Amino acid sequence: MAFHTEVPFTLPRGYMCSAGTLHKDGVMRLATAADEILPLKDPRVQQNPAYLTVILLSRVITRLGGLPEVHPGVIEGLYAADLSYLQTLYQTLNGDGAFTAPAVCPRCDHHFDVRFDELGEALEAIP
To answer: Which of 32, 48, 80, 105 is the most buried (most CB within 10 A)?
Structure first.
């Protein structure tokens, strides 16, 4: 299995830029130690710790639609659903990588969990 450092995503709502263009498709890269440490020195984060999410996402999102760059102002302009989606994606990519999701067999209606890797590839069914 290949090691991927970037993952494409599609926002649920999309970012509407000042030109009126909706940007939904993007790429997020794995975070480095610097991505998590350096924003702590930012005065905006020191004044409001919740702003850490904005700075962090602006560092790890390498592309969003046709925007020339993804800066904190772009992240500030996201709809709440998109921000939540990106926070979850960040945690999935930069956590231990695995997560589980509930599933149901379409033939027998059996309920079980499926364990996925950080890219969403099924690893195993958990009875």
So the answer is: 32
